[in-house]
Design brief:
With about 230 residues, the chain is α+β, with helices and mostly antiparallel strands. It has six helices and nine strands, in the order βαββαββααββαββα. Strands 1, 2, 3, 4, 5, 6, 7, 8 and 9 form a nine-stranded antiparallel sheet that branches. Helix 1 packs antiparallel against helix 2.
Amino acid sequence: MTGDEQVYVQALALGIDPAWRRRTDEERSEDGCLFGAAVAAAELEGVRSVSYSSIGLEPGVDLLFWRMAPSVDALERAAAALLRAGLGPWLTVRHSLVGRIGPSQYVRKPTEQEQSLFAGDRSRYLVVYPFTKSTDWYLLSKESRQGVMNEHMRVGHDYPTIRQALAYSFGLDSQDFVVAYETDDLVAFGDLVRALRATESRRSTVSDTPILLGIHRSMDEILGLLGAG
């Protein structure tokens, strides 16, 4: 990404109307084919989506898409196409977290671990949530905030297999940030979260829920689990 490029990300969590599961095998299969084609067609709009299953893991959420696009407009157009194709009319948007990728105030040179977006192989699990800090945090001096964040980042570097993406949501969404983690080891991720709870940065946290968990699967796999393959 160059300095002139804009990159927007979205965590889009979708839930299926239970009535859809009572449609015939043929109807579900056709719905799945049309929906899968709409996901693939979004690439032509410059919207890249990585698909995750949250079936039975998150109340009301069956599908989780981690999406990247050059504009909010592109995200909107791709979502509209998705929600009118096949399975789409049976879906409800349960959560939508939107943010913009930008340079960090606290990291001079982000590592691959700290800016995990769409490069390389995807990890097995995605954990994504909105994050908001307190007013008092923003009224601290830059030096004070940097010291707190240095401790926060040192803890993160103790878990090098866990990758993170941070997007800024100021003026775009209700939260301050969208935070996403990729990992193959949920036990290690739980240990990381617990360790971060004990750092000074925790004092400034206003909210960091809901936490959405997804298992990385291809659309064919997800449609198969849903009975639409």
